[in-house]
């Protein structure tokens, strides 16, 4: 049962919940400490086995007019939780926030100012890496302010080519650094249920739909660094999902290029190929670290096919482009994988 809310909110913040009792209160408090009456918070319990569900109810009792609770009858994963909340939310804009992260003070006020003055379909923000015990090396790495976009800031823009290029350069495709007009999702764009790297599979597709966007180079989200992340605990299944994350996007990009000449620019081909190569190399590094695992040879062939299908440039063309742009470290690191026998065999099979 979805509880009614008094009036239509301008912003819905979606928080999926699964065994995050230790973090959830701080997350929710970071939102409601700065939210105005037009902000609704949706939380969905994905059958937690700790005290998360009880904490959710306690938080709802604390803010009965601001929080709406949902629940799945069985555990379905992050994508399904977000999809259920997308269907239930009522705000004009939607912000997906992970339950172990938090919003920094002033984020919602700055967002509302942008929305009221410019009305973009998509708003991008920056973030910080949030560590329990930050050290000097973390500050020197710039973890207090990580840019999610490379391009013009502080103005309403409409070029999908500039948007896609700036996102591909940074590679920060996470959903929580993007606030999206709810209508942009439509009824046909959702996170892939049962898959890892769901943001990589979804956010590039969403970028193709945005006709207006605004980049705020401000740190709005604190992204918690903790053990147990997808990347730090890679498996063959996760590697496969990473490798194939751009399959649908690559098809939709071809269709979008037919109506938007800007998306046919050489820089788009290069940067999309670069993003595809990052996924391919990340998946292949797992295979290289587990050479005796069952199914490695078959997986390597599939990963090569995934790259060739999602990259506008051939491996040889991408390496040449790295050199032409002066991306020497990318060129040197990429040679191992982009000149591999698996890719050469996949090219021959496709020709």
Spell out the key features of this protein.
single chain, 351 residues, alpha/beta, Spore Coat Polysaccharide Biosynthesis Protein SpsA, Chain A, 2 domains, nine-stranded mixed beta sheet, globular, Glycosyltransferase family 2 protein, hexosyltransferase activity, Nucleotide-diphossugar_trans
Instruction: Give the termini separation.
Output: 54 Å
- The CATH superfamily of the largest domain is Spore Coat Polysaccharide Biosynthesis Protein SpsA, Chain A
Integer-rounded radius of gyration? 21 Å
Mean pLDDT: 94
General form: globular
Which CATH-level-2 architecture of the largest domain? Alpha-Beta Complex
Number of domains: 2
Q: Sheet with the most strands?
A: 9 strands, mixed
What share of the residues does DSSP label as strand, in percent?
5-15%
Q: What's the multimeric state?
A: single chain
Please write the CATH class name of the largest domain. Alpha Beta
The total strand number stands at: 9
- Tally the helices: 15
CATH topology name of the largest domain, in short, is Spore Coat Polysaccharide Biosynthesis Protein SpsA, Chain A
**Which stretches are low in confidence, meaning pLDDT under 50 for 5 or more residues running?**
1-6
Give the SSE string.
EHEHEHEEHEHEHEHHEHHHHHHH
Provide the helix percentage. Answer: 40-55%
The secondary structure category is alpha/beta
Describe this structure in words.
Keywords: Transferase. It comes from Corticibacter populi. InterPro entries: Glyco_trans_2-like, Nucleotide-diphossugar_trans. By secondary structure, the protein is of the alpha/beta class. The chain folds into 2 domains: about 210 residues, Spore Coat Polysaccharide Biosynthesis Protein SpsA, Chain A (Alpha-Beta Complex), CATH 3.90.550.10; about 120 residues. It contains 15 helices and 9 strands. Strands 1, 2, 3, 4, 5, 6, 7, 8 and 9 form a 9-stranded mixed sheet that branches. The N terminus is likely disordered.
